[in-house]
Amino acid sequence: MAAPLDSSAKDLEAMLNATVPRLLRWFETLEDQPSHATECPPEHLAAFREPLPESGRPLEGLLDRLIDDVVPWSFNTAGPGYLAYVPGGGLPSTAVAELFAAITNRYAGVCAAAPVAVEIETQVLRWLCELMGMPKGALGVMTTGGSLSNFIGAVAARHDRLGEDLTGACAYVSSEIHHCMTKALRLAGIPSAGIRTVPVDDQFRLDPSALRALILEDRAAGKRPFLVCASAGTVNTGAIDPLTDIADLCADEDLWFHVDGAYGALFRLVPELEAPLRGVERADSLVLDPHKGLFLPYGTGVLLVKDLRALRAAHDADAAYLPPLNEGEEQVDFCNLSPELSRDWRGIRLWLPFMLHGIQAFRDALREKHELAIHAAEAIAQEPGVVLAHAPRLSLFAFRQTFEGLSLEQENRRNEDLLERINHHRRAMLTSTEIDGTFWLRVCVLHLRTHRERVDEALRIVREELRNPGG
Ligand SMILES: Cc1ncc(COP(=O)(O)O)c(C=O)c1O
Questions:
Q1: How many CB atoms are closer than 10 A to CB 112?
Q2: Domain topology for 98-359
Q3: Considering only CA atoms, which residue is closest to atom 3 of ligand 1?
Q4: Claim: this prediction has a pTM higher than 0.70
Q5: What average pLDDT score do residues 105-114 get?
Q6: Whose CA is nearest to atom 2 of ligand 1?
Q7: 215, 237, 335, 384: least CB-packed within 10 angstroms?
């Protein structure tokens, strides 16, 4: 029988009783599931192009369909073999938090609607500021991911430094910046001519002297430099820009210093990795992505700002039908810190795991990923003909196989084949990138469930395929 739209407590219990065992059965097999499987038969897709049902169908059949016909056809982003792009995890305690948030349906967009729910979300942000070493008074907002956080940061910088006149505005990014940063600048109204690309050094880090020269050149031409966007861990090679030098330059030139730390900044939790990330604490705005560096399921990003007033000033909008909104830093209204009014109760996604596991568990997991990446990179670098773009600074590295006497194009083709052969085993999924016409394979160890055993299995596969050129 179809379920009524509203549920009694018993109906809800029945739905959970149907859902939980199915999810658990699937969860138990994660280790054996393929690392990716996207060659979905066309009939599977066609079967979902169906008329909207006029009346409902039994839950059990719908859940079975999701588990059997939807979830398997994908990158296995919940599994240990996911070494692709920038992995996250799917921390189960966040799933519980999310269930709790959805069932209680608390609204945390304005403080007056749920002061304690807003308080715990604010506390999560205070903790993150502390972990990043940001000064007292820093705070921010939780978002759906790094792209939105970069956008909100760009809007705050624009508003604070340019007001409403965008004439001659110039923002600076390195050639290795994540593409969502340039997209964010465009969406924030900066014309493409004002998005200035700074070259990188031989380690793929923004070159501060080239940055300074470009700023001076733009100033001399009557332009208005206002923002520098640096990376704390690039997506291509894991490079960390010279953050302290860039912070100094921004201070000298009175520019907003934005750091995209979506991949890397959370490694600052590991004491040994504080030094390479030094400078993040000086950011005017800093992007973190807990659905990467804290292993959460997709949907949680963060923007931290040194001066909350600047963020609020850029997003402030009041209306007679809203409850009174706060001005200070003690109690905040998230609707005044980002473009969103209605939103999920996001803070609980991090508050529950922090309280349940403690921060040391996250530190240990991040250290483990860093050490696994070093182990993997050292093993691969020993293979004949293999070169690394750079040893992993955090948990990401790029490599390629070189061949005597082959042109770059031929070599690229060989490396594309190599990637395909490695991934064909379906025990580890790697991805690739291209830098200045050169094709690189990438390994990013950041999945919650990736441990030594799976990395060693992936290494056996990589070795086997490296020694088998041509397949
Ligand atoms: C360095 C960096 N910045 C930004 C992003 C975009 O973040 P999101 O995918 O959460 O929007 C990514 C994603 O991989 C990233 O690696």
A1: 14
A2: Aspartate Aminotransferase; domain 2 (3.40.640)
A3: 262
A4: yes
A5: 96
A6: 262
A7: 384
